[in-house]
Structures are given as structure tokens and as C-alpha cells.
């Protein structure tokens, strides 16, 4: 029957907030979620595929920006608040920059943008919204932006 | 206003789209260069660049020579031990006998108003007999936490006894008086919860609030208007008040001031704003109410309305340890989640049997409560005209609290003045009185003062002697 169960090595990431991203299959699941949500949007709203991809792109922007780059700290009280000033993106991989996970997560919004803008034939207003979304996400994921808070936004406790 | 906004956004979008849709100005290898192509090419280049970089940890920049030199110059050495000041040399009076209504200090017999022996159970024969019996049967220690072979039948009996006495479904015992409240609060209140607490709670409660990591809002001491304002503010401010757990933490009789919390008001507010009450009854259990059942009995509030009641048994019941009661779920949750219960050795069995004997005594002799009440009333009357000091406690509180009418300026000089009054009262009139001593960790801002703990076993002459002594000493010291 082949390998029904994947053996996951216990990850050395002690941060319960981010260690779930070390498991095999996370990338595939992420891409699968995006595809399934595109399909759902297409079937529920009955719009063109391009608009559906735009909707998926914008929704993905809103969700990932909020959870990766806005919310700080962890929902686990046992870590005694050592990550209280760090967003999920900054906590990932223990702060190591340009790891495989980070590169994957940087590439995903760009690929989404390319698909969305291509399938909408570069029409306005979808194009400007998509461009804005990908710009913000890509800049937020630069290694130079590690622990940077522009104009003190989101610097509070 | 809205129309103007729509116009502005429309014109901005038009401008941007015209920039994007500008007629193709260049044709490179037959491919018309549109604006979006530039953006995409830029993106792809940036991403490919990032993808090809190696992963690295952000470097920890070591200090430069100049920075090291600057830090060394700024450093001022501190002595290994601080200078021994005169207050550090202070030795409080040591009791050389049991802390009953009459005790022996420095070889002299004194009238003891510094022990919270409200029902006069220190040295009671029934309690001592039950202790001796338990010692012979179980030995001294229980040698284990409750979850690991440290549960003895007297613990279960004591819990049942207290629950039946108070009329609650169940109760849970703790092995150290003040660890009750600072284990119960973190067991229920977690990070993100909201607690509205009285600003006059004692250090153990403050420690519990700190350990819970919840958002704590303090209201003015025993001021129901301030409590209502804080509750209103907190309910208004939180985005989803129904989803957040909200607690009110009060003490029945405040150790730091002798005030009694108006429980009926608090319960009314709790039901209006949907909060839960955590009530610390350490000084009111066995004191207030017609049968000594505490503040709920005294105020006529049904005991089910109070969610969590804790008490230390070191005061009226003259044993040690503490208990917490409430509904079955409240008590059950603590058996696995309360740090003081799970991770500390259980109450020594002789103390648990002493607690059972004390509650039995209280049930059989309710007259001791009326004796205590007359004693409090007598002392309160006598102390109403002490020169320089004013009564700050509630008329029914067994902790009679006297504070300075006029503060001498700094907290330090106030403490010195009160200490000298207590010292003189002890040396000249053999009356042992305590000043409120606050630790450096205590954040309570209430004024300090002299505290007299009234006991049911104080005789009338003891009370009159103490009152006369205080009046005399205060008149001479505060001039």
C-alpha cells in the first residue's frame, strides 16, 4: 500500500506558534487550499475565472497580512511572552532569514499575482488592487524588514 | 462628504489606469511593453534574486571598542552588600508562648491584639485533642501532593465539612493560607481576560493577579460608584465583551483597611454587567453572619451567586491552610489546574482535623460569634476618641484599624511614629499591637496604620486596658 503514513521528524522549533509549518505536506496543503478556494469562489459567485482569482488573491492578502505580519505574539500563554513583540513572520524558523519556508511563502503571492493579472487580462480595477496586494506582501517579507516597524505602526504592546 | 470621497477615488483610479493603459511606447522584439509587464518583470527579478540567496541568521552585532569604553566609564560600582541601616536592625517583638489573647513577650505577659484569633480557638482543648489524635494516627506530614498519594481521609472529610457548613456543593483544600488566593486566580484567569479588582487587596491577591497575566483594572477602595464606572468602561472598551472572561476580585474584610465589601451591591453589579466574583473571605469566615458563614450570610446573598469563594484558615479557624468553594465545576477544575494544589504537598493531616474540630465548635457554639461582636463594639466605642488617630475600619470588622489623623509627611516617618506608639504600648502597658507592615513588593496605596485584631476570648478588661493604653501613648507621642 506504499507509505500511508509519512514519518515526520520531530522539529526542533520550540515555538508552538510556528512549528506546525515545519511539517511535510504544509506547502502542498497551502497550494491546495488556494485552488479549492478559487473553485469555491467561482462556483458561489458565478464570476469569470479572472475575477475569482482576483478575489482569492485579495482574500489571501488580507488573511496572510493579518496573521503573518500584523498579529504579534503567540496564542500560547506557556511561552511567557518572549515572542510578544514579534509577528508570525519574524518568529518563523527562529528568526533565520531566507530559509526554504520563507522563500516559498514569498513566491506564493507573486505567483498568485501573475495568475490573477493574466486571467483578468490586466484590466482595471482588478489590476491595481492585485498590484497593491502583492507589493505590500513582498515588501513585508524582505529580510531587511525583519523587526522593522515603519512609522511605529504596530509597534505597541 | 461621501460623494466627494467617491469622486476623489474615481479620479485617482482614472489617473492610475491611464498611466497603466498608456499607449505602448516601445516595442522590443515585437513585444509591446505595457506598464504591467514592467511591474511583473520587476517582481520576478526581485523574487528570483531572493530565491537564490543563501539563508542566514540575522547577525548579532558585537560591541565596538569605543562602545565598550563608554560603558565602562559609565559604570558605578555598587557594594556587595548594602549599608546596614538602623531599620534593618529592628527586631520585632517575639512571642514566647501560644498566640492566645494573653501571650508572653520578652518574659512579660501581654495582652495580645496582634493575632487574628477571632474565635479564641488558639489553645482550645477540643482542637488540641483532635490534633493530638491525628498526630498519633497519621504522624506529622503528609509527604506528597494531593495527586500522588498525599490525600488522606481527613482531607476529604474536611472538604466535605466545609462545603456542608457553607452550603456549597464542594470545596478544595490548600496547604498554605495565602497560596490559596494566588493559586485560584491564575487557575481561572488567563492572558486576555479582564479582572476588575479593588485597589486595597493585600499582597497575596496582587501576586495572584500578576501571575494570571490578565488585564487588571483597579477601582477605588470599596467604592461602588467607582466599581460601576470601571465595569462600564471595561464593557464598553472591549470589542467583544461576551467572548472575554471577566472577573471581579474583592475581599470580604480588607486586611489593609478593615472595610467590609458591600456584597449585595457587588452581586447586583455583577449580574448587570455579567462578571464573575472571586471573593477572598480569609478574615470574614467564622466571623460575619449569624452562624459565621461569612459575608454572604451577613449580607443575605444566596451563596450560589458568588462564583468562587476562597479563605485562609489561619485566622478564625486557628489552623493553617486554606480552602476554596464554589460549584462542582469550579472545584473540579482546580484539582488539575491549580498550581498550589497540584504542585505542593498537601495539608498536614493534623491541621485538617483541627479545621474539622474548629468548624464543629463553631456550629455547636454560635454564642462565640455574639461575644466577638460585643467585643468589637466595645473596642470600637472606646477607641473612637484616641487623640491623633482616627478609626478607619467598618464598625463590624474584627480588624480595628486606626490611621493617623494627620500624616507627618512621608510614609517613612508615619511608620516610625506608629512603630514608636506600638513599642511604647508594649513596654509600658503590656499591650501588643501591630502596625501594618507592607512589603516592598506590595503595590497597595492605602494609608498604613495600627491594627488591632479583636478576639472572642478577650475579656472586657483586656479591651479597656488596650483602649486606655492607646489613648495615653498616642497623646504623648503625637503632640
UniProtKB/TrEMBL annotation, chain A:
The membrane topology term of the UniProt record is:
Multi-pass membrane protein
Pfam (any one): ORMDL
Is Signal among this UniProt entry's keywords? Answer: no
Q: Please verify whether the record's keywords include Transmembrane.
A: yes
GO cellular component assignments: endoplasmic reticulum membrane
Q: Which UniProt keywords apply?
A: Membrane, Transmembrane, Transmembrane helix
Q: Which PANTHER family match?
A: ORMDL PROTEINS
What is this protein's name?
Answer: ORM1-like protein 3
UniProt lineage: Eukaryota, Viridiplantae, Streptophyta, Embryophyta, Tracheophyta
TrEMBL record, chain B:
Which Pfam families does the UniProt record give?
Aminotran_1_2
KW Acyltransferase (keyword) present: yes
| Transmembrane parts of this sequence | none
Q: How does it sit in the membrane?
A: Single-pass membrane protein
Q: Which GO terms describe its cellular component?
A: endoplasmic reticulum membrane
Organism ancestry:
Eukaryota, Viridiplantae, Streptophyta, Embryophyta, Tracheophyta
Assigned keywords, A-Z: Acyltransferase, Lipid metabolism, Pyridoxal phosphate, Sphingolipid metabolism, Transferase
| Protein family (similarity comment) | Belongs to the class-II pyridoxal-phosphate-dependent aminotransferase family.
**Name of the protein in its database record:** serine C-palmitoyltransferase
Catalyzed reactions: L-serine + hexadecanoyl-CoA + H(+) = 3-oxosphinganine + CO2 + CoA
The cofactors required by this protein are: pyridoxal 5'-phosphate
- UniProt subunit comment: Heterodimer with LCB2. Component of the serine palmitoyltransferase (SPT) complex, composed of LCB1 and LCB2.
Q: Which GO terms describe its molecular function?
A: pyridoxal phosphate binding; serine C-palmitoyltransferase activity
Q: What is its EC number?
A: 2.3.1.50
The record lists the organism as Rhynchospora breviuscula
Amino acid at each position: 500500500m506504499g507509505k500511508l503514513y509519512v514519518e515526520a521528524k520531530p522539529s526542533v522549533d520550540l515555538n508552538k506558534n510556528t512549528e506546525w509549518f515545519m511539517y511535510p505536506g504544509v506547502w502542498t496543503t497551502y497550494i491546495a487550499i488556494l485552488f479549492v478556494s478559487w473553485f469555491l469562489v467561482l462556483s458561489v459567485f458565478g464570476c469569470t475565472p479572472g475575477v475569482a482569482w482576483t478575489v482569492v488573491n485579495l482574500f489571501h492578502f488580507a488573511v496572510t497580512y493579518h496573521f503573518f505580519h500584523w498579529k504579534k505574539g503567540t496564542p500560547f500563554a506557556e511561552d511567557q511572552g518572549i515572542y510578544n513583540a514579534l509577528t508570525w513572520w519574524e518568529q518563523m524558523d527562529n528568526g533565520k532569514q531566507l530559509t526554504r519556508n520563507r522563500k516559498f511563502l514569498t513566491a506564493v503571492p507573486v505567483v498568485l499575482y501573475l495568475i490573477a493579472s493574466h486571467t483578468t487580462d490586466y484590466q482595471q480595477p482588478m489590476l491595481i488592487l492585485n498590484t497593491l496586494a502583492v507589493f505590500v506582501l513582498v515588501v513585508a517579507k524582505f529580510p531587511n524588514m525583519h523587526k522593522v516597524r515603519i512609522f511605529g505602526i504596530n509597534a505597541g504592546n | 462628504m461621501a460623494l466627494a470621497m467617491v469622486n476623489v477615488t474615481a479620479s485617482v483610479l482614472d489617473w492610475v489606469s491611464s498611466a497603466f493603459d498608456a499607449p505602448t511606447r516601445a516595442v522590443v522584439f515585437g513585444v509591446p511593453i505595457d506598464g504591467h509587464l514592467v511591474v511583473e518583470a520587476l517582481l520576478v527579478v526581485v523574487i528570483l534574486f531572493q530565491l537564490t540567496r543563501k539563508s542566514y541568521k540575522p547577525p548579532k552585532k558585537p560591541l565596538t571598542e569605543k562602545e565598550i569604553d563608554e560603558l565602562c566609564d559609565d559604570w558605578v560600582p555598587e557594594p556587595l552588600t548594602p549599608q546596614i541601616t538602623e531599620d534593618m536592625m529592628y527586631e520585632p517583638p517575639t512571642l514566647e508562648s501560644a498566640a492566645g489573647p494573653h501571650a508572653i513577650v520578652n518574659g512579660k505577659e501581654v495582652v495580645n491584639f496582634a493575632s487574628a484569633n477571632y474565635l479564641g480557638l488558639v489553645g482550645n482543648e477540643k482542637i488540641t485533642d483532635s490534633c493530638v489524635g491525628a498526630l498519633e494516627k497519621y504522624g506529622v506530614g503528609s509527604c506528597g501532593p494531593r495527586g500522588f498519594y498525599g490525600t488522606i481521609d481527613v482531607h476529604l472529610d474536611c472538604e466535605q465539612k466545609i462545603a456542608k457548613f457553607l452550603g456549597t456543593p464542594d470545596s478544595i483544600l490548600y496547604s498554605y493560607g495565602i497560596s490559596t488566593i494566588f493559586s485560584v486566580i491564575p487557575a481561572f484567569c488567563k492572558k486576555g481576560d479582564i479582572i476588575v479588582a479593588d485597589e486595597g487587596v493585600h499582597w497575596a491577591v496582587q501576586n495572584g493577579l500578576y501571575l494570571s497575566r490578565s488585564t487588571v483594572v483597579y477601582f477605588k477602595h470599596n467604592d461602588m460608584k467607582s466599581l460601576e464606572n470601571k465595569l462600564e468602561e471595561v464593557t464598553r472598551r472591549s470589542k467583544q465583551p461576551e467572548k472575554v472572561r471577566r472577573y471581579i476580585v474583592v475581599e470580604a474584610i480588607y486586611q489593609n483597611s478593615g472595610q467590609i465589601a458591600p456584597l449585595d451591591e457587588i452581586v447586583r453589579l455583577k449580574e448587570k454587567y455579567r462578571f464573575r466574583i472571586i471573593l477572598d473571605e480569609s478574615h470574614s469566615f467564622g466571623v460575619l453572619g449569624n452562624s459565621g458563614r461569612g459575608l454572604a450570610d451577613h449580607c443575605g446573598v444566596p451563596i450560589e451567586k458568588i462564583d468562587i469563594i476562597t479563605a485562609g484558615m489561619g485566622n478564625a479557624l486557628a489552623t493553617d491552610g486554606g480552602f476554596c468553594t464554589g460549584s462542582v465545576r469550579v472545584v473540579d477544575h482546580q484539582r488539575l489546574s491549580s498550581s498550589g494544589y497540584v504542585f505542593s504537598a498537601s495539608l498536614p493531616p493534623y491541621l485538617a482535623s483541627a479545621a474539622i474540630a474548629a468548624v464543629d465548635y463553631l456550629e455547636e457554639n454560635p454564642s462565640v460569634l455574639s461575644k466577638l461582636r460585643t467585643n468589637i463594639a466595645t473596642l470600637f466605642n472606646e477607641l473612637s476618641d484616641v487623640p491623633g488617630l482616627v478609626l478607619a475600619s467598618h464598625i463590624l470588622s474584627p480588624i480595628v484599624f486606626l490611621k493617623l489623623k494627620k500624616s507627618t509627611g512621608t510614609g517613612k516617618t508615619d511608620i516610625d511614629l506608629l512603630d514608636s506608639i506600638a513599642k511604647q504600648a508594649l513596654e509600658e502597658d503590656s499591650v501588643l499591637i501591630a502596625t501594618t507592615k507592607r512589603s516592598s513588593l506590595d503595590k497597595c496605596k492605602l494609608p498604613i496604620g495600627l491594627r488591632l485584631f479583636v478576639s472572642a476570648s478577650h475579656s472586657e478588661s483586656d479591651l479597656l486596658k488596650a483602649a486606655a493604653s492607646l489613648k495615653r501613648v498616642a497623646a504623648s507621642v503625637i503632640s
